[in-house]
Specification:
The complex is a heterodimer of chains A (298) and B (184).
Chain A lengths: L3 E4 L10 H14 L2 E4 L8 H5 L3 H16 L5 E4 L2 H13 L3 H11 L9 E3 H8 L2 H7 L8 E5 L8 H4 L9 H8 L3 E2 L18 H17 L4 E4 L2 H8 L2 H8 L7 E3 H8 L17 H7 L5 H4 L1
Parallel strand pairs in A: 1-2, 1-3, 3-4, 5-6, 5-7, 7-8
Chain B lengths: L13 H9 L11 H5 L10 H9 L3 H5 L3 H4 L5 H5 L6 H15 L5 H17 L4 H12 L8 H7 L13 H14 L1
Helix pairs in contact in B: 1-7, 8-9, 8-11
The chains are: A alpha/beta (298), B mainly alpha (184).
C-alpha cells in the first residue's frame, strides 16, 4: 500500500511563508513521510471565502479534493492551519447529500470527499513518536528556551480538527522537548494573534500579538515556535510595528517548528532558510551552537 | 452600545434564516456568556457576541446585520470550542456576514474590501497574488499607506513576489466563480 501523501502547500508557501514550505519538505523527507504535490492545486479561499459564502468556499476546496482523489495516496496533508480547517470543514459538510450535489455541480467534477486530511504536525507526531524522533537528533536544541505557539485553529474547532487538545495542545511541546529544547509552559499557546485584521485594523493585531510577545519575553523565552503562517507573519514581520505601537523593544525570533526540528536533525541553516526570518535568529542559533551563517545568508 | 432600530425591531423570519443557513439551533443559547468571555476581539466589538446571540433570538435583524462585530470576528473558533450547548457560534458569525452583504449593511467596508480583493486574486490566477491583492485593496479603499513600512522588508526577504503564481488551469477556478454566481 502506498505511503504517499497528497501535499497541499497553500498560497503562503509561495511567498510569505516560503521557509515553512521548504523546511516542511525537508523534515518530511528526513522522517520518511513522502509528499506528492497536488497537481495544479488552487487557493482554498481561506477566510475571505468562508466569510463570503460557504458554497463558494467548499467549491474552491472541492476542486483540490477531487484532484487529490485521483492520486494514489494515504490522505491529504497541509502545513497551514487555515487551509487545514477549510479542507476538513468542506470534507465534513460534503457528507450531506444536498450540499454535496450543489458543490459537485459548481466544480463540475465528481468529488468523494472521503480522503483523510491531517496537518503536517499531526502526521509527523503520529508517524514518528517524539521518542523515535529523539533518537535521530544529531544536534539537540539544548539551552534553547522556547514557547510553543499553536495559534487558534490548529486544534479548533475540536469536532472538525480532531487532533490534540483544543485548550491545551501538547504536540508541539512534546516534539520540541524530544529535540532537546527547554519548553516553557505557555498560557497563550492558543490565543489569537489578530489574523488578517492587521491590514485593516492594525491596532487590533499590535494589541493581540503584542500580548503574546510580552508573555513569551516575561517567561524568559529565547524564541517562539509556531506552526501557522499567519501567526508567524504577525509576530515576525510585524514585530517592529508592534514594538512601535506598544513602546516595547522585543527582538524575539519566531521559528517554524519545522525549522527547529530540521536543525536538531542535522540540516543546515541555509537549507532551512533561516535567512527568511525578519527578526534575526542569530543569537538563538548561537545558543544551540550552530555556526553563525546569518550574515552570509543575508 | 447601539440600540436596535425602532423601524425594524423584530423580523420573525430572521432567526429561521440564520438557523437554516448555519444548521445550528440558536434557541439553545441560554446566555452563559462563555463566547464573550473567550472572544479575543470583544474589546473592539460594538456588540458582544453573547448579545448578538440574544438579539438573533429576538429577531433584531437590522441591528445585528449592521454591527461592526460581525466583521471584526477573526474566526478563531474560541466561541465554538467553548459553547456548552455545542452551538457553532463562529459559523453563525460567517452566516451573518453573508446576510449583511446581501442586505447591503456592511459596517466595516475595509474588511469586506480586503476579502473581495483576496477573492478577486484567486479568481484571476487560481492562487492569491499578494502584491496584486494589496494593490487592489489600496485601490478600493484609498489607503495608500497600508503597511507601506512592511513592503521593503517583505520584498527584501523575497516574501512579496511581484509576479503572480498562477496555475495551469485558472479557467477551471474562473468557472467555479461563474457557476457560483449563476446560483445566487
Amino acid at each position: 500500500m502506498s505511503k504517499q501523501y497528497a501535499y497541499y502547500p497553500g498560497c503562503s508557501a509561495m511567498g510569505s511563508s516560503i521557509e515553512y514550505d521548504i523546511s516542511t519538505r525537508a523534515l518530511c523527507k528526513s522522517l520518511g513521510v513522502e509528499l506528492v504535490d497536488i497537481p495544479d492545486w488552487n487557493c482554498c479561499g481561506s477566510t475571505p471565502a468562508h466569510a463570503s459564502d460557504h458554497l463558494l468556499s467548499a467549491s474552491l476546496v472541492a476542486r483540490n479534493l477531487a484532484i487529490a482523489e485521483s492520486m494514489d495516496v494515504e490522505g491529504i496533508i497541509t502545513p497551514c492551519p487555515s487551509c487545514l480547517k477549510n479542507l476538513k470543514t468542506t470534507s465534513l459538510r460534503m457528507q450531506r447529500k444536498d450540499f454535496h450535489e450543489k458543490v459537485e455541480s459548481i466544480v463540475e467534477r465528481p468529488v468523494r470527499a472521503d480522503l483523510p486530511i491531517r496537518s503536517v504536525l499531526q502526521t509527523v507526531v503520529e508517524h514518528c513518536s517524539p521518542q523515535s524522533i529523539a533518537e535521530h537528533v544529531s544536534k539537540p536544541l539544548k539551552s534553547l528556551k522556547v514557547v510553543p505557539y499553536y495559534g487558534c485553529i490548529m486544534n479548533r474547532p475540536p469536532d472538525v480538527m480532531t487532533f490534540d487538545d483544543p485548550e491545551n495542545p501538547t504536540s508541539l511541546d512534546r516534539l520540541m522537548g524530544a529535540l532537546g529544547a527547554e519548553v516553557l509552559p505557555f498560557p497563550h499557546k492558543v490565543d489569537c494573534c489578530g489574523a488578517s485584521l492587521g491590514l485593516v485594523r492594525r491596532e487590533l493585531v499590535t494589541r493581540l500579538s503584542g500580548r503574546i510577545l510580552d508573555a513569551a519575553a516575561s517567561l524568559g523565552a529565547d524564541a517562539i515556535v509556531t506552526a501557522c503562517p499567519m501567526c508567524q507573519l504577525n509576530l515576525d514581520l510585524r514585530q517592529n510595528q508592534i514594538n512601535r505601537a506598544n513602546g516595547t523593544q522585543h527582538s524575539m525570533p519566531i521559528f517554524y517548528y519545522t525549522q527547529l526540528a530540521g536543525l536538531a536533525l542535522g540540516q543546515s541553516e541555509s537549507c532551512l532558510r533561516m535567512d527568511k526570518l525578519c527578526v534575526s535568529p542569530a543569537k538563538a542559533l548561537q545558543q544551540v551552537g550552530a555556526p553563525a551563517q546569518e550574515e552570509r545568508a543575508r | 452600545m447601539p440600540t436596535s432600530s425602532t423601524t425594524d425591531r423584530f423580523d420573525s423570519n430572521f432567526l429561521k434564516e440564520v438557523q437554516e443557513g448555519s444548521e445550528q439551533n440558536l434557541t439553545r443559547c441560554y446566555q452563559c456568556g462563555n463566547c464573550t468571555a473567550g472572544c479575543p476581539l470583544s474589546f473592539a466589538y460594538d456588540i458582544p457576541v453573547n448579545r448578538i446571540m440574544r438579539m438573533l433570538q429576538a429577531g433584531e435583524k437590522h441591528a445585528v446585520l449592521s454591527s461592526k462585530a460581525i466583521w471584526l470576528c477573526a474566526s478563531c473558533e474560541t466561541c465554538t470550542t467553548r459553547c456548552p450547548n455545542e452551538i457553532d457560534v463562529a459559523r453563525i458569525m460567517d452566516v451573518l456576514r453573508h446576510m449583511a452583504r446581501r442586505e447591503g449593511l456592511v459596517a466595516e467596508p475595509p474588511v469586506r474590501h480586503m476579502w473581495d480583493a483576496f477573492l478577486n486574486s484567486v479568481e484571476k490566477y487560481g492562487r492569491v497574488f499578494e502584491a496584486g491583492m494589496m494593490a487592489n485593496f489600496v485601490r478600493r479603499t484609498g489607503r495608500f499607506w497600508t503597511d507601506a513600512d512592511l513592503a521593503p522588508v517583505a520584498l527584501g526577504k523575497g516574501k512579496l513576489g511581484l509576479r503572480p503564481h498562477g496555475i495551469k488551469h485558472p479557467d477551471e477556478v474562473q468557472r467555479i466563480f461563474a457557476r457560483f454566481r449563476e446560483q445566487l
